[in-house]
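Retry 2 of 3 after timeout on previous attempt. Resubmitting structure tokens to design endpoint.
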């Protein structure tokens, strides 16, 4: 089994050069390794906890999606989606909330920091603390364990959240008596560059010392680079390369040989002005082609939307069957008697006894297939295909890649965003819900075969 690597990106700010070198570049690099299944998502529900400006949240989702795609994320390879497109995350969040001790949340750093600040100000300890902030780690745990991520690369400030995710997952496993969730491991990338900002402190929006990644184009990049603080040594005087932020920045975007040459030039007396121009040229050489892709993407938000929708579909194909198992585990069961197969129990595969597909030909000669439950109940009927191969291909893909969604008086099966099959009309909402659960269960069962 491949290693599942998952990380979330909170959609508040506009990405800068430090985000690129510290998070985006290493994550994309990791996603191209053999044996890795990468899950990257825009944590837009988490953004709502920190930000109540709708325009900023909306803008940041777009910019971040465009940035990751322009930086080389391959959506065919990586499951790339928005948290808010996966209702199973919020559903799982509730199941986890119900097993999470309040005392555990009381210990969360972010919450405690707010309480401490309030104490210092002499106001109520919970002043300005929302339940979103308080429960932040539970939502994050749901993000992670829903996909059974093995490894979660994050910054140091997130280590405690990962510990809490493990703790919560373990409690659920223990309480409901099975290994429903993999316990995720935190990955702190020691190698990854933490870039200094214009003033030499860590590059961060809160210090207002950032170098923009794409926004503002080449001229904004140049003017930021020209504002990097240096010492007052004149051209001709040897510089302390090792101690200069300029060199640290250069090194993060150059090979060891190129960095050594730059360093020798600084130590040989290159002026700061020339050094800044050299740094700018190097950055621009790397960023210009990416910026071109970024601008092209930003000009076509509907294309980004499509990519994210396709990503959500991939993610939900995994999340929906997982939720069925979890609902069953906690007792939210189908009252009609037909129970989803428990994750631990291997599905019965007696000949002809499980859920199955049957293919048939219509009177007009076109090809269709049906999904039947073990007891023969019709759960889906496909559209008419002129080409039997296409019908066969859709049928094959449906269990793993299909997405069932409620539709008028029933539900429909989607593949790659298009409807390929529909349900019989239900008598009422409860009837539809029952059928839909049985259809999901049937597809989940077939997906395991
Ligand atoms: N809390 C993370 C941050 O601020 C973002 C995040 C949300 C996340 N859900 C996640 C990171 C799941 C890793 C896994 O950086």
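Retry 2 succeeded. Sequence:
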């Amino acid at each position: 089994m491949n290693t599942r690597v998952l990380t979330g990106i909170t959609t508040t700010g506009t990405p800068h050069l430090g985000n690129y070198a510290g998070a985006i570049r290493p994550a994309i690099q990791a996603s191209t390794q053999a044996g890795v299944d990468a899950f990257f998502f825009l944590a837009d529900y988490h953004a709502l906890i920190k930000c109540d400006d709708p325009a900023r949240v909306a803008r940041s989702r777009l910019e971040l999606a465009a940035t990751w795609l322009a930086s080389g994320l391959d959506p065919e390879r990586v499951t790339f989606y928005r948290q808010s497109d996966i209702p199973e995350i919020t559903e799982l969040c509730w199941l986890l909330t119900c097993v999470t001790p309040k005392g555990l949340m009381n210990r969360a750093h972010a919450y405690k920091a707010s309480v401490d600040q309030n104490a210092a100000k002499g106001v109520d300890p919970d002043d300005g603390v929302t339940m979103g902030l308080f429960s932040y780690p539970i939502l994050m745990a749901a993000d992670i364990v829903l996909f059974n991520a093995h490894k979660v690369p994050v910054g140091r400030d997130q280590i405690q959240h990962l510990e809490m995710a493990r703790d919560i997952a373990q409690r659920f496993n223990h309480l409901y008596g099975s290994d429903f969730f993999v316990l995720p491991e935190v990955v702190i990338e020691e190698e990854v560059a933490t870039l200094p900002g214009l003033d030499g402190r860590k590059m961060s929006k809160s210090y207002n010392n950032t170098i923009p990644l794409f926004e503002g184009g080449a001229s904004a990049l140049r003017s930021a680079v020209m504002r990097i603080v240096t010492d007052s040594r004149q051209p001709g005087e040897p510089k302390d390369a090792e101690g200069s932020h300029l060199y640290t920045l250069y090194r993060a975007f150059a090979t060891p040989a190129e960095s050594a040459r730059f360093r020798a030039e600084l130590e040989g007396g290159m002026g700061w002005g020339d050094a800044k121009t050299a740094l700018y040229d190097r950055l621009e050489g790397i960023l210009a082609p990416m910026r071109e892709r970024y601008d092209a993407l930003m000009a076509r938000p509907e294309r980004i939307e499509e990519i994210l929708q396709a990503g959500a579909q991939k993610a939900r194909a995994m999340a929906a069957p997982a939720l069925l198992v979890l609902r069953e585990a906690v007792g939210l069961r189908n009252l009609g008697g037909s129970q989803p197969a428990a994750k631990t129990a291997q599905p019965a595969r007696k000949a002809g006894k499980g859920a199955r597909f049957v293919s048939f030909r219509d009177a007009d000669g076109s090809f269709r297939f049906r999904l039947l439950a073990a007891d023969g109940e019709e759960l889906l009927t496909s559209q008419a295909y002129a080409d039997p191969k296409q019908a066969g291909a859709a049928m094959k893909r449906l269990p793993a890649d299909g997405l069932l969604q409620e539709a008028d008086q029933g539900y429909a099966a989607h593949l790659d965003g298009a409807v390929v099959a529909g349900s019989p009309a239900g008598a009422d909402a409860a009837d539809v819900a029952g059928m839909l659960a049985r259809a999901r269960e049937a597809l989940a069962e077939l997906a395991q075969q």
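Attempt log closed. Residues 342-351 have pLDDT under 50 and may be disordered.
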